[in-house]
Specification:
Length: 115
Amino acid sequence: MLTLTVPQRLELKGRAHSLKPVVIIGNAGLSPAVLDEIERSLKSHDLLKIRVMNDDREAREAMLQEICEVLKAGPVQHIGKMLVVYRPLDIPIAKAPKRPRGKPLTKKQLAARRQ
């Protein structure tokens, strides 16, 4: 399980606030299929919000611990029926270079770039 410091968790909580739940754990609980779906989601997103459809707080806490142990992720937050987990991406995604803001390119400028 990944261990997070308090400043890291605070920053991740802020980032997770605007996220929508990607995975929903239903009444069947934490099945291998659900774990596989969480794994696939963590490969493309480092921060993941999970909704649990279970009223038992201890069961949700146990699910969070199991997810973090099996998938080597770090628990960020457990609030209500929402779980937030974090695992750094294996391959850092490079951002596209920013184009300077200004006037849009003309047809002549676009044609010159294509050559």
